[in-house]
Design a protein that fits this description.
The two termini are 27 Å apart. The protein has helices at residues 4-15, 31-40, 47-59; strands at 21-28, 42-43, 62-69, 74-75, 77-81, 86-94, 97-111, 115-116. β6 and β7 (97-111) form a beta hairpin. The strands form two sheets. Strands 1, 2, 3, 5, 6 and 7 form a six-stranded mixed sheet that branches. The chain has three helices and eight strands. By secondary structure, the protein is α+β, with helices and mostly antiparallel strands.
Length: 120
């Protein structure tokens, strides 16, 4: 039987490799946007999310983004945020048409393999 001190020590040891890292689940409206991100290594998000991501990027050792397409029942992969958010008009062409993104940030894809929620 473990006492509270043992459990605390075990949790601290398990968390050590990622201590100081932040994690966000990014919900995309469609898979096409995730595929484009995997190809271009950039992402754009709503203004409300930008505030939190900017602060996290400035403070944390690393910021990891776990991608999921809405209602897909799976994660599509994960990436590390590799730049702060910047104002840069970027052309984003998808099956839904072309749009200009007002702000973007760089991402470094670590895993592009999807996994069902039930397998995590």
């Amino acid at each position: 039987r473990l006492d509270k001190g043992d459990v605390t020590a075990a949790l601290a040891a398990a968390a050590e490799p990622t201590a100081g890292c932040d994690y966000f689940v990014i919900k995309s409206n469609n898979y096409q946007n995730v595929k484009i991100s995997m190809k271009k290594n950039i992402w754009s998000t709503m203004k409300t999310n930008e505030i939190r991501l900017k602060a996290s990027f400035k403070r944390a050792k690393a910021v990891y983004l776990i991608y999921s397409v809405k209602e897909s029942g799976r994660f599509q992969g994960y990436a590390r945020m590799s730049s702060t958010i910047r104002t840069e008009k970027t052309k984003w062409a998808s099956e839904r048409g072309t749009m200009i993104l007002p702000t973007v940030f760089d991402v470094e894809w670590i895993n592009k393999v999807g996994i069902d929620f039930t397998k995590t």
